[in-house]
Specification:
Blueprint lengths: L5 H15 L12 H10 L5 H14 L3 H4 L4 H8 L5 H19 L7 H5 L6 H12 L8 H9 L8 H11 L5 H15 L13 H4 L2 H9 L1
Helix pairs in contact: 1-11, 2-8, 3-5, 5-6, 9-10, 9-11
Length: 219
């Protein structure tokens, strides 16, 4: 199985993930593009569970860019204090809300470059918003996806940018929107970073590369 061609391996992985997660839910609670954007921004270096705990209080203050642009940074911080990098995120939420009003008529733009120009919004955050808010195919790469792509021999894992390019080549575009969530859920539930039994894993047992098997054995 280790000599399986990358295209064949990707096809089998996709089939298996579709069986395991036929309809993966979006893990961050939200109601529209703006609340999704804010939730994804908050999720950096923080669990989705923690974000879902703080966003009800935050969105009780305001649920629109115009409304949030008028909320003091201190009030925003008071609601999100328990998430990682909270002071910086509070400032970014306030400023991006102002910019959405100033530049985009109070709407979240359906454009990668415009999203990435907002404070605190990197490529991954923008990609998630494009997928989940607007249904535009993209392939956001988080730590789970980056790790599994390397473990399965679908990418070298040298950078998240390269992993994204490799995965886009490996899988059909019409699978990306669902697939990035499927890999995240699989990584959380079956494929931890350390102490992972490759032979017992539903996918690693046949997809892991010889190099990755040797590396895991040395840990």
């Amino acid at each position: 199985m280790l000599c399986m061609k990358r295209a064949e391996k990707a096809e089998r992985i996709l089939e298996q993930l579709n069986e395991l997660y036929p309809d993966p839910p979006v893990p961050l609670d939200h109601g529209d593009p703006f609340t999704l954007l804010v939730a994804v921004l908050l999720s950096a270096q923080t669990t989705d569970e923690r974000v879902n705990m703080v966003t009800p209080g935050l969105f009780a203050l305001a649920r629109t860019p115009k409304g949030m642009s008028q909320v003091p940074v201190e009030a925003i911080l008071g609601e999100i204090r328990t998430v990682g990098l909270a002071p910086t995120k509070a400032k970014n939420i306030r400023r991006l809300s102002e910019l959405l009003v100033e530049r985009h008529g109070g709407e979240v733009p359906q454009d990668m470059d415009a999203l990435e120009a907002l404070p605190g919004v990197g490529h991954k955050t923008a990609s998630v918003v494009m997928i989940q808010a607007f249904g535009v195919p993209a392939f956001p790469v988080d730590t789970h996806i980056h790790r599994l792509a390397a473990r399965w021999g679908l990418s070298t894992g040298k950078s998240v940018e390269k992993t994204e390019r490799d995965l886009k080549r490996a899988f059909p575009e019409d699978s990306w929107i669902k697939l990035h969530l499927q890999i995240i859920y699989f990584g959380r539930e079956h494929c931890p970073a350390r102490g992972h039994d490759l032979e017992a894993c539903p996918i690693c047992s046949w997809a892991a590369t010889a190099k990755r098997i040797a590396e895991e054995a040395r840990r």
